[in-house]
Amino acid sequence: MISQVNPNSFISDKVQLGKNVKIGPFCYLDGSIKIGDNTELKSHVVVSGNTSIGKNNVFYPFSNIGCDPQDLKFEGEDSYLIIGNNNTFRENVTISKGTKIGGMKTIIENNNLFMTGVHIAHDCIIGNENIFSNQVTLA
Q1: pTM of the entire structure?
Q2: What is the DSSP string of 66-124?
Q3: How many angstroms separate the Cα of 91 from the Cα of each of 23, 33, 43, 118?
Q4: Secondary structure (DSSP) of 119-136
Q5: Could you read off the pLDDT of 109-119 as tens digits, one per residue?
Q6: Are strands 16-17 and 105-108 parallel, antiparallel or unpaired?
Q7: From CA 69, how far away is CA 83, in angstroms rounded?
Q8: What 3-state class would DSSP assign to 60?
Q9: Residue 103 CA, distance from chain mean position
Q10: What is the rounded distance in angstroms from the CA atom of residue 53 to the CA atom of residue 34?
Q11: Among 110, 41, 103, 116, which Cα is nearest to 77's?
């Protein structure tokens, strides 16, 4: 199936979309981004940087995915965010990409639920089948 992209969203030429990806209104995707099959960005979602998103993920409004780390030592290095399959990211979730000191990667594996306002800081590694309650912060 062909991906569905709302005309009010911006997607840079570097973004690669899988099959049946749904991009709702007012999303902004800019960077070296890969999005797997059957993933949905509801609306007002920002995805940036070197971000790889697997299959069957759902991102709710106002999530900021792959943003620069909140680390004064970050100097714009080419770091990564890797997200697996079957994850749900509720409203206002933020996830930063990695830093030099932390191995250059933030990793989220499969089947996780991130409730409203969760922040996953740079260099975190999240395994499988976790639930993060509202406003949880990992650093």
Answers
A1: 0.97
A2: EEPPS-TT------EEEE-SS-EE-TT-EEE---TTTTSEEEE-SS-EE-TT-EE-TT-
A3: 15, 21, 10, 9
A4: EE-TT-EE-SS-EE-TT-
A5: 999 999 999 99
A6: unpaired
A7: 16
A8: coil
A9: 18
A10: 6
A11: 103
Helix (H) or strand (E) holding 59: strand 58-59
β pairing state of 131-132 and 119-120: unpaired
Bridge partners (DSSP) of residue 53 are 35, 83
- Find all residues with CB under 8 Å of 50, minimum gap 6, and list them: 31, 32, 33, 66, 78, 79, 80, 81, 97
Distance of CA 38 to the CA centre of its chain: 15
Q: How far apart are CA 131 and CA 112, in angstroms?
A: 6
Encoding tokens for residue 111? 């089947």
Q: Which amino acid is at 99?
A: T
Q: What is the CA radius of gyration of the chain?
A: 14
For the chain, the residue count is 139
Q: C-alpha angle with apex 37: 34 to 39, nearest 5 degrees?
A: 85
pLDDT in tens, 19-43: 999 999 999 999 999 999 999 999 9
